[in-house]
């Protein structure tokens, strides 16, 4: 059996898993043009061409990157194309006169024929239907994935087919298995061979459909298993102080909604039901007070609590609040620059520095801003008896799937303590004067503006100049609003950055230019306009968090999503549409899950969105796909029961 080698970087640890790593499309290399007759080449259509190199290729440079122009011919007609990147090995191996096979999109200009998006085709693929796989940048290229899987396929298919069969029989009555997967004329082994070595495009895509259905079933299996485990697992009951008495230590009265969510969590903890909770609520709904009170209850029962936050500023802020409320229970702070006597503290607030200390076993772990932490980070502090409380305004798709299907218990805050109305709009490069006028109007009314940029400084990794750095924006805004602008980002001296934020808070400036350091934990009085520059660079979670800086103390505000880049993808516009239409974090998280996929909903994976990484890899699915499969399973079981009766 061949060694797995670079397949391990794809999450493949056993040979059989190679047969369950799915391609995402197929390319037909059975039709190759060897005659370049202009009359039969259609504009903007895809084609594969085999010809001889006519001249030595010419390499030129643009923005520090090479591009090489090739010309191939069929004996009389020519086709031109450009390859980007380092082509030295290709040029060396293919001198003029050598045959080259290339694919691309036909573009005709007068009598000349060009190929756009051209790439060289491996000659061994000619005459085949080739599966196209995803690789991992810097680790394994897609063409190498194809070769490695082909290398392992014969050894892998038997065990892989058995794994699929076991999964199907676990959930599907035997008489319905073939109709469920839709492969009445093929065995599972034959389906897997068609998946990776199809004889026709139809064979390949039909096999991919079959495996996709089984992938949805595999994801459903992970979700059902987790839900069942969470419902049945018991831990030691914790009897703490009356939450109503503990709440008296908080210097403001909790709303009925807040206290209700506290009691939902405390009830499970009191009765010894091991639980994973998700506390979701927008900025201003009082999430910190809720998890502080739950933490205090656990601490008052004699157990210890770890509260992990994504950055030091936020950790210090939360520590100060909880220490003010419940200092008598023993509250400590643990960050890169703050240490405490862990053994004598019941509640330890910190950053990921907690992961590098032996803090002992916890009764409760709280992860605030959970979308900023990896699954492995969030779960590293857990033991077999630990309750988990994750907190977010916009949880990651994987957690959202768990919450919607009951695998984690949802604690939801819907009401802000202040009334606010933030209008969100999209602006393009041609709208920049309108944006500037909005800034001018805002500061003339005595209010503040936050401008968020995707990069700190201009650098070489921005060849088209479409990503505006914070430094560039700061310089430009200073020309228009001298004396009104300050800047803060992570590459600055931190004391200078803090001084900038202090100035805008103390009304010594009206405009703050920043990066995503402003995403969490920053409150600026009278900040009523937020401009997110290069909004295409952010996911929905970050966009909603940044918007949450606006009008935190109530009132009307504006969030401006600025897209200066002329090339905007459909997926970007989908995200912008969600932001314009939705202001509720729960709904945004639900739509984010639908757009990005649910990720790995098994027990051991670390993919928080995107493709499944359970039994089958490479398939992207939504919660709707999983729920549809679960409904179908239940229907088939009912049919089998009725026939048996």
Describe, in plain words, how this protein is organized in 3D:
- The strands form 5 sheets. A 7-stranded parallel sheet has the order 11-12-10-13-14-9-15, with helices on both faces. It has a 6-stranded parallel sheet with strand order 16-21-20-17-19-18, with helices on both faces.
- The chain has 18 helices and 23 strands.
- Helix 2 packs across helix 5 (201-232), helix 5 crosses helix 18 (623-644) and helix 7 (256-271) runs parallel beside helix 8.
- Mean pLDDT is 86; it is low at 603-610.
- Strand 22 (611-613) and strand 23 form a beta hairpin.
- It has 645 residues and is α/β, with parallel strands linked by helices.
- The longest helix has 32 residues, at 201-232.
Concise description?
It contains 18 helices and 23 strands.
Strand and helix map with partners:
Elements: E1 25-28, E2 46-53, E3 58-62, E4 65-73, E5 78-84, H1 88-93, E6 99-109, E7 112-120, E8 129-132, H2 142-171, H3 177-181, H4 188-196, H5 201-232, H6 243-247, H7 256-271, E9 276-281, H8 287-300, E10 305-308, H9 312-326, E11 331-334, E12 347-350, E13 364-368, H10 375-380, E14 387-392, H11 397-404, E15 409-413, E16 420-428, H12 432-444, E17 448-452, H13 470-480, E18 485-488, H14 494-505, E19 511-514, E20 527-533, H15 540-547, E21 555-563, H16 570-581, H17 585-596, E22 611-613, E23 617-620, H18 623-644
Parallel strand pairs: 5-7, 9-14, 9-15, 10-12, 10-13, 11-12, 13-14, 16-21, 17-19, 17-20, 18-19, 20-21
Antiparallel strand pairs: 1-8, 2-4, 2-6, 3-4, 4-5, 6-7, 22-23
Helix pairs in contact: 2-4, 2-5, 4-5, 5-18, 7-8, 11-17, 16-17
């Amino acid at each position: 059996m061949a060694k797995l080698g670079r397949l391990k970087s794809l999450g493949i640890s056993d040979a059989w898993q190679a047969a369950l790593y799915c391609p995402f499309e197929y390319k037909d290399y059975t039709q190759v043009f060897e005659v370049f007759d202009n009359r039969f080449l259609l504009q903007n259509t895809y084609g594969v061409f085999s010809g001889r190199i006519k001249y030595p290729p010419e390499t030129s440079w643009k923005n520090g990157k090479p591009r090489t122009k090739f010309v191939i011919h069929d004996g009389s007609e020519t086709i031109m194309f450009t390859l980007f990147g380092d082509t030295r090995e290709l040029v060396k191996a293919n001198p003029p006169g050598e045959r080259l096979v290339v694919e691309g999109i036909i573009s005709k200009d007068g009598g000349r024929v060009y190929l756009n998006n051209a790439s060289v085709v491996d000659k061994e693929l000619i005459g085949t239907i080739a599966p196209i796989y995803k690789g991992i940048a810097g680790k394994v290229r897609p063409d190498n994935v194809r070769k490695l899987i082909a290398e392992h396929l014969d050894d892998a298919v038997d065990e892989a087919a058995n794994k699929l069969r076991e999964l199907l029989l676990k959930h599907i009555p035997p008489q319905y298995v073939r109709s469920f997967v839709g492969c009445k004329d093929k065995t599972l082994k034959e389906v897997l061979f068609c998946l990776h070595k199809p004889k026709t495009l139809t064979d390949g895509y039909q096999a991919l459909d079959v495996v996709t259905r089984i992938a949805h079933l595999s994801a459903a299996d992970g979700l059902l298993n987790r839900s069942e485990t969470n419902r049945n697992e018991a831990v030691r009951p914790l009897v703490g102080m009356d939450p109503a008495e503990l709440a008296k230590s908080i210097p403001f009265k909790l709303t009925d909604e807040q206290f209700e969510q506290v009691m939902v969590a405390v009830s499970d903890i009191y009765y010894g039901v091991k639980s994973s909770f998700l506390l979701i609520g927008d900025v201003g709904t009082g999430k910190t007070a809720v998890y502080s009170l739950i933490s205090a209850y656990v601490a008052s029962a004699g157990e210890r609590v770890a509260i992990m936050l994504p950055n030091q500023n936020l950790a210090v802020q939360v520590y100060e609040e909880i220490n003010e409320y419940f200092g008598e229970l023993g509250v400590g702070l643990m960050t890169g620059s703050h240490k405490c006597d862990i053994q004598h503290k019941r509640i330890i607030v910190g950053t990921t520095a907690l992961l590098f200390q032996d803090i002992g076993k916890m009764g409760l772990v709280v992860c605030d801003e959970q979308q900023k932490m990896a699954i492995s980070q969030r779960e590293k502090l857990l033991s077999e008896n630990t309750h988990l409380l994750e907190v977010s305004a916009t949880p990651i798709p994987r957690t959202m799937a768990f919450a919607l299907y009951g695998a984690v218990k949802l604690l939801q805050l819907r009401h802000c303590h202040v009334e606010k109305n933030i209008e969100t709009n999209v602006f393009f490069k041609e709208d920049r004067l309108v944006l500037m006028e909005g800034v001018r109007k805002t500061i003339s009314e005595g209010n503040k503006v936050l401008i968020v940029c995707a990069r700190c400084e201009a650098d070489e990794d921005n060849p088209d100049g479409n990503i505006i750095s914070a430094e560039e924006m700061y310089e430009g805004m200073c020309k228009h609003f001298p004396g009104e602008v300050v800047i803060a980002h992570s590459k600055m001296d931190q004391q200078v950055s803090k001084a900038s934020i202090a100035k805008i808070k103390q009304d010594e400036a009206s405009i703050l230019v920043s990066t995503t350091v402003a995403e969490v934990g920053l409150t600026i009085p009278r900040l009523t306009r937020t401009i997110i520059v290069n909004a295409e660079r952010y996911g929905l979670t970050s966009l909603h968090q940044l918007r949450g800086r606006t009008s935190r103390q109530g009132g009307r505000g504006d969030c401006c999503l600025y897209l200066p880049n002329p090339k905007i993808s459909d997926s970007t516009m989908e995200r912008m549409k969600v932001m314009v239409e939705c202001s509720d974090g729960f709904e945004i998280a639900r739509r984010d899950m639908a757009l990005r996929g649910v990720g790995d909903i098994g027990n051991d994976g670390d993919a928080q969105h995107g493709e499944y990484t359970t039994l089958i890899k490479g398939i992207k699915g939504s919660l709707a796909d999983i729920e549809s499969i679960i409904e179908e399973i239940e229907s088939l079981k009912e049919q089998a029961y009725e026939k048996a009766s």
